Amino acid sequence: MPPFNEEVIMRATFRQGARSFLLLLMLVLSVTAHAERKLLDQVVAIVDDDVILQSQLDARIETIVNRLQSQGTGLPPRDVLERRVLDQLVTESIQLQMADKMGMRISDNELNDTMTNIAKQNGMTLAEFEQQLGAEGVTYRQAREQIRNQMLTSRVQQRQVGNRVRVTDREVSNYLEAKQNQGADSAQYHLAYIFIQVSDPDNDAAVNAARKKAENLRQQIVNGRDFREVAVAESDANNALDGGDMGWRTESQLPSLVAPIVPKLPVGEPSRVLENKSGFHLVMVMDKKGGKEKQLVEQYKVRHILVRPSDARTDDEAEARIRDIYQQLKDGADFEKLAKEYSDDPVSGSDGGNLGWVSRGQMVPAFEQVMIEAPVGELEGPFRSRFGWHILQVLDKRTKDVSSEMRESDARQAIYRRKFEIELQKWLQEIRDEAFVEFKGKYARDENSTGEADQSS
């Protein structure tokens, strides 16, 4: 397959292996230790076959506090933050156990590419990125594990929730038509969001209580309380511990519930309380910027040959093969013929290695960098990406106005994202209800030991 990037919905987590053994070890220590023993760690929750340790909870809280403080976001009371972070760790543990049962793995090469890309996106080298993490109290090793687990939970969500979502051409057409009738432009909005879930939509008292809470929170924000602080302390949305940050959205990417509101909403003012079947919502425009009428992109007509390492072929053997292919090409062999014969990319290989016209952002960083710098017609390689060893050749370059394609793509993504977010909330509640969750120590709750009674996440 071609080396395309994956879009990741990421949330940080810490997870330790062999926890069943750890529980046994802690029990033995508690029996055999004497007066001067010192408790090094303790279990704060049991989640199916996993446990969450106090050290994990403390580390996650420290990471979140550092991030919120760097953003200038106020913090809720410590006990509130502890409870919300622990609930987040429980939900993540359930998903990581699912990933393990599905046999999902993130290779070191794939993780290295991701870490390098994150550093580049922040304008840093990998060494500078590591130094920055250290300044924020996070080791590079801890950051790698956080990112690895983010990637795993994202893949579980995509596999379990993504197949529930379908976007039809008719929906895209209707979406674009509605936007055109609204006179939508290319403005972009940096949004923050608060969601108050209704525990029982069929119970009038529960609905009224949620509505009253949302109205009260809105008034607190109007009176000067920081929107992001309220999101951290009170929101039931998945991004609550990120201060409700939704990132930048074009007008075509706005969720349908807030699409009529956001373009008219002044920067820094909360919306009125919005209601749908799932609960009550507040949105705030944190910043706004205009866009360009035309979407001009650089495109590259490129072909490649891929040789993958496998169980039957070591990385050194894969490199040796790609170098042999490269030498054949330098000696005048036909690229198309060799791609059909040797490429491990079944889609492009059957077409002589052809990937067609490719825009920036479509390929993994290692491949894209070589593609961008390659002179037209020249062979480039061999080089490695997380998919394996490549040779590529850029056949042509062009600048293209892709406004129409971008609008359609944005519409499809907006519809998909809206449906996905709805289904994700349902699915997260489902897996939490089905899980065995038992809180320990001061976090113990007066409820039965199954997740069915725990509706807090």
UniProtKB/TrEMBL annotation:
This is Chaperone SurA. It is found in: Periplasm. InterPro entries: OMP_Chaperone_SurA, PPIase_dom_sf, PPIase_PpiC, PPIase_PpiC_CS, PPIase_SurA, SurA_N, Trigger_fact/SurA_dom_sf. Signal peptide: none annotated. It comes from the Bacteria. Its EC number is 5.2.1.8. The keyword Mitochondrion does not apply.
